[in-house]
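task queued by scheduler; priority normal; single chain, no ligands, no partner chains; default sampling; output format set to structure tokens
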Amino acid sequence: MAKTAIPMVNLRAQYLSIKDEIDEAISRVLDSSIFINGPEVQKFEAALAEYLGVKHVIGVANGTDALQIAFMALGYEEGDEVITPSFTYAATAEILGLLKLTPVFVDVDPNTYNLDPRKIEKSISARTKAIIPVHLYGSPAPMEDIISISNKYGLHIIEDNAQGIGAEYHFENGSIKKTGAIGDLGTFSFFPSKNLGCYGDGGAVCTNDDKLAQKVRMIAKHGQSKKYIHDMLGCNSRLDAIQAAILNVKLNHLERWNYTRLNAAKFYNELLADLEQVECPIIDENHKQVFHQYTIKAENRDELQAYLQSEGIPSVVYYKIPLHKQKAFINIPNRKGELSDTEALCDKVLSLPIDSEIAEDQQIEIVNHIKNFYKQ
């Protein structure tokens, strides 16, 4: 058994490390009694826009709403197609179905877990309108290739950056952009376990397009251009002031936390380097990763996970069933190409504990248990 309890994500330890700042921020909102919109939300939107290097950030209720509102702002027609990985969380494709758009599932690169550009172009049809790169596990998708394809076919890029806040893509011309701030629209989740997480639900949409920003703001507020003036159908999706105040505090610590996660990933790789039954994630020196998850590929994955659980070591499979095999998407008519790499990953991936508070002795203990399993 583990010597001490090791959480998958230690949110309590993170809170205690900034407790005074968080408590003061929450108290400030309670004293103001401005709980919806207001100065805390405006402050966070401006701070995140500056951090990302974009013109507009619009806070919304959660990451799924962020994706849905982004696509609503683009005004696609029923049946229009959107290219998306099958190896991702359901929300990425779920919103397409809700808007009566057609997700076209494309295979991923088994080494990076992100969309494989070689497979994207083969999946484009006359009805294709957009590509959703997902910066999975906090590693940048191959944006240079995706931009080239989108320019060739006149497609929008909507980044699902729920797991990648703070990651950076380094272009061949030397320019650097943060993920989420590269495409036409970027979407974010601030679910508590994210690298930048609030203490409830929260999300955001970002863009450099003034017209799209205006539409996103309107849609998120019931389609209102002014109070009680509804110019389009919208929804009710707001980032509340307490969550914004918490995020304002945590944004100041994000770079340090992401640096800790990257170092933890490198240390895991060192510890696991001589274990032939495990393939470690790539540390990409060309880009900046933020390791929302540290995900290995392991032989006898399910047995390993069961063994770790018996020893008090948590782990999670993200994702065990690919979207194209989920009941909700099984009847999607326009699936193109094989998804063999996606299906192989679903049988092998296993995410180990990683967060801003993880200690090296905890990592050593986790890896020792993994090694013990393969010695049996």
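post-processing summary
- The CA atoms of residues 58 and 326 lie 31 Å apart.
- The radius of gyration is 21 Å.
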